[in-house]
Amino acid sequence: MAKRVAIVGAAESDFGKIPHVGDLELHVQAARRAIADAGIPKDAIDGLFTTGGRYGMMPIVSLAEYMGVFPTYLEGTNTGGGAWELLVGHAAAALQAGLCTVALVVYGAAPRNNPSEGIGQAFSLPGTPVAYDDPFGLPLPARAALVASRHMHLYGTTSEQLAEVAVSIRKNAGTNPKALFRDPITIDDVLSSRMIADPLHLLDCCVVTNGGGAVVLTTEDRAADLAKPPVYVLGSGEALASETLAGWPEFGRMVSVESGRRAYEQAGIGPADVDVLQLYDAFTINVLLQLEALGFCAEGEGGPFVEGGRLGYDGALPTNTDGGGLSSNHPGMRGIFLVIEAVRQLRGEAGPAQVPDARIALCNGTGGPFSASATVILGRDQ
Amino acid sequence: MSAHLPIIDAESAPFWEGLGGGELRLKWCLSCRRPHFFPRTYCPYCWGDTEWRVASGRGEVFATTVVRQMGFPPFRDRVPYNLAIVELAEGPHLLTQVIGCEPTSVRIGLAVQLSPELDGTVWMPFFTPA
Lengths: 382, 130
Prior knowledge:
The complex is a heterodimer of chains A (382) and B (130). By secondary structure, chain A is an alpha/beta fold. Chain A has two domains: 5-116 and 210-233, Thiolase/Chalcone synthase (Peroxisomal Thiolase, Chain A, domain 1, 3-Layer(aba) Sandwich); 139-207 and 236-379, 3-Layer(aba) Sandwich (Peroxisomal Thiolase, Chain A, domain 1), CATH 3.40.47. Chain A has helices at 23-38, 59-67, 83-96, 140-155, 159-173, 187-192, 220-223, 256-267, 284-293, 302-305, 324-328, 335-347, and strands at 5-12, 47-49, 73-75, 102-109, 195-197, 200-201, 211-219, 231-240, 276-279, 360-367, 372-379. In chain A, the strands form two sheets. Chain A has a nine-stranded mixed β-sheet, with helices on both faces. In chain A, strands 5-6 form a two-stranded antiparallel sheet. In chain A, helix 5 (159-173) crosses helix 9. Chain B has 130 residues and is mainly β. In chain B, 6% of the residues lie in helices and 38% in strands. Chain B contains one helix and ten strands. Chain B has a five-stranded antiparallel β-sheet with strand order 6-5-4-7-10, with no helix packed on it. Chain B has a three-stranded antiparallel β-sheet with strand order 2-1-3. In chain B, a hairpin with a 2-residue loop joins strand 8 (117-119) and strand 9 (122-124). The N and C termini of chain B lie far apart (31 Å). Chains A and B meet through helix 4 and strand 5 of A and strand 4, strand 5 and strand 6 of B.
């Protein structure tokens, strides 16, 4: 029987508008809070897992020097916003294999400081898939809008149903003092917000904030003596589709089908066992597709499924209980916050959004946002 | 040349250059016989050798949107505009703009045909209703 691996520390940096803080600082701010949460000294970290931000030719090397860490096991895979679920899964595997003893997964980004950079900008090299996207003027919301158009066409999904997602997640944000937007909204508010890319309105789209987060993992034997109750990694999985929508082999069917299947198998559970769910809500349609792909409802039934406030913290399937990317924070790759909120829920630290007696949490991170998926299932001692 | 235009290299040049003559050129695999998009030297399905052929230029709209807000030039001054994924008669999908009609009038299933349009120095593979 392999050693169990646990998340023993988890923390967010400051987030929100905070224009005076840079990407690198946010990494350290989150990391030092996470090791304090764990009660582990900085020098115990021997495994570093990060996408490394956007620093030059060797991003993880730049970040490690800035942070003053000298890992002997490291990984800098970038699969977009959900890379953090992939990295948590890989950190757990490395710890189980004895390749490192204390793993830090860390993120920070400050997109509000340079609003002209990044998202939507043509930075395609010849021969790469996006070289056939960028010349047409494809902003991120339009990618999600194209997917939504197809879902509506095939299944009759409505704008009202998409709005339900934003309304429930905003309700959850109302319990989070750090969330960017906390005032309740209605379906009408979503539908009357300005159109960004048909059929997606402004309130179908995530916020843009600065922020970072970190989690610390170690093996079960070390976890037992630490400050907080361990949250075990029960299963993980990952899968890749395509960078472009045109190349998506099964358009509209997120590869969370595969990442989820692997995670469920490893954890020995199914969707019905999940007490609290954290999905990557870059856009409302993404939530429907993940609910379908992860087996919470059948393919095409995401619209009716989310009606009636099901995703609220007090609903039948509490989802994005911190207010998610739609209302709380989104620095560009917010998958780390899914894990941090799941840890809070499993420790009973989630405040007014606490799901009573939450034992199993599922985090699904997506990147692209339809290109890659990674799933992590977490649980506490029963 | 505007930064949004494709940087054309030897691998992609036949695709872009064909558009100036009204041709939609795709790559076909010499081993598994399947066409693919975007064009690559080796077939993504089986890694076989490939050759260029002229496709029909016909297809139908598979997914569609109207972009109302876009932060980057030159597109920020072109909104609203259509973006669509077209399923080509030969099978592959490509991202494009459907032009020559109201952007909001483009529906999934609409039959479209290639209608290249010059953007700066590059002929773009746009489509119009057939």
